[in-house]
Amino acid sequence: QNGFTVAIDGPAAAGKGTISKAVAAHFGFAHLDTGLLYRAVGAKVLAGKDATEAAQTLIVEDLEDDSLRTSEVAQAASKVAVIADVRAALLDFQRSFAARLGGAVLDGRDIGTVICPEAAVKLFVTASAEVRAQRRFAELSGKGHADTFEQVLADVQARDARDADRVEAPMRPAQDAILIDTSELSIEQAVAEAITAVQAKR
Ligand code: C5P
């Protein structure tokens, strides 16, 4: 790993995506949302493909599909994410991205623990399940989706459990990760905390 890597992990809807984009923009780093890799594989499985084969043949264009954002694809993603061969197939792409000169932000579940254990900065961004479900619910309602709050909360909890309890690269903070709980923070406050943490290691 030659580049300056920022690893940002945490559960769904804790604010990882927003924080990662803001940190990348602030420092001029490249950004990879690694969840998209698992979502793209999940979408292919929903379309009838074999998970491991889908992961081994994934191309960058597969990550640009708007339909990857649905909760159906999110659940499918967390199911393929327990498969060791799927994770292995996606490893090199993520590590090469992290090694970019000029710096890179990668966000996901296992960036600080497995993908980039030598990352210069590791953040673990969390919030209570209720707060995260509330945010996801507001986002989905805004887009005209009919899911109830209870459905969204159940979805978030099912995905948390699958991600945290799996044997292969379970979601957990790296030992040297800085925790940011966004439950009671505004987006601006959360972003400011993350930027301060990265600045301190530059
Ligand atoms: O972050 P996002 O919600 O897009 O991730 C979708 C799913 O992909 C997660 O629930 C998780 O199961 C899986 N994932 C993973 N490791 C990562 C990123 C995502 O297992 N680094």
Automatic annotation (TrEMBL):
GO terms for cellular component: cytoplasm. Keywords: ATP-binding, Cytoplasm, Kinase, Nucleotide-binding, Transferase. It catalyses: dCMP + ATP = dCDP + ADP; CMP + ATP = CDP + ADP. GO terms for biological process: pyrimidine nucleotide metabolic process. Signal peptide: none annotated. It is an enzyme of class 2 (transferase). It is found in: Cytoplasm. Its main location: cytoplasm. Residues 6-199 form the Cytidylate kinase domain. One of its GO terms (molecular function) is dCMP kinase activity. SUPFAM superfamilies: P-loop containing nucleoside triphosphate hydrolases. Its EC number is 2.7.4.25. ATP binds at G10, P11, A12, A13, A14, G15, K16, G17, T18. Belongs to the cytidylate kinase family. Type 1 subfamily. This is Cytidylate kinase. It comes from Sulfitobacter undariae. The lineage of its organism: Bacteria, Pseudomonadati, Pseudomonadota, Alphaproteobacteria, Rhodobacterales.
